[in-house]
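Quick one:
INPUT:
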């Protein structure tokens, strides 16, 4: 934990927003993972069937029930995409700020203060790496979640159409 705090401190002011983006991103990933896990246990069928029975068997009702289920599945994905895109941009901004510090050291002290110069370069590298460390796994898990959601949408469509096919037989 001490090491993490040291790295955050050495990375400069932008490390806190990068850390915040990371926490927010992982909260969404875990929430979506738990939601998708509950779908495997039949967690979508009961609410969808209840919604269908309330709306009736008209084609428009089927569309509304299907659309509501799809919106529920997609909830949080746009935020996740935005956070994944923001993390490396914050890292890049930290890079620019760190290099700016390094150039100011050169402007004021010349090359005679290597420690101050290294501090600016270190800040630049730490924020760059941190932004990428947040974004890369986020992108990986976003892909897995997106794939599972698309599979669930197919299941929802089959469920909706199957429910109405049974009703039409009666």
């Amino acid at each position: 934990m001490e090491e993490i705090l040291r790295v955050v401190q050495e990375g400069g002011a932008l490390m806190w927003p990068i850390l915040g983006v990371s926490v927010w991103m992982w909260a969404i990933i875990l929430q979506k993972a738990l939601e998708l896990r509950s779908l495997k246990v039949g967690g979508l069928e009961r609410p969808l069937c209840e919604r269908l029975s309330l709306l009736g068997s008209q084609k428009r009702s089927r569309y509304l029930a299907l659309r509501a289920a799809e919106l529920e599945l997609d909830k949080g994905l746009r935020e996740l995409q935005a956070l994944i895109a923001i993390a490396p941009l914050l890292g890049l901004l930290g890079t620019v700020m760190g290099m700016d510090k390094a150039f100011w050291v050169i402007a004021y002290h010349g090359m005679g203060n290597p420690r101050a110069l290294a501090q600016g370069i270190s800040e630049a590298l730490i924020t760059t790496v941190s932004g990428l460390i947040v974004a890369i796994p986020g992108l990986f898990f976003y892909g897995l979640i997106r794939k599972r959601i698309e599979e669930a949408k197919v299941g929802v469509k089959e469920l909706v159409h199957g429910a109405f096919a049974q009703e039409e037989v009666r």
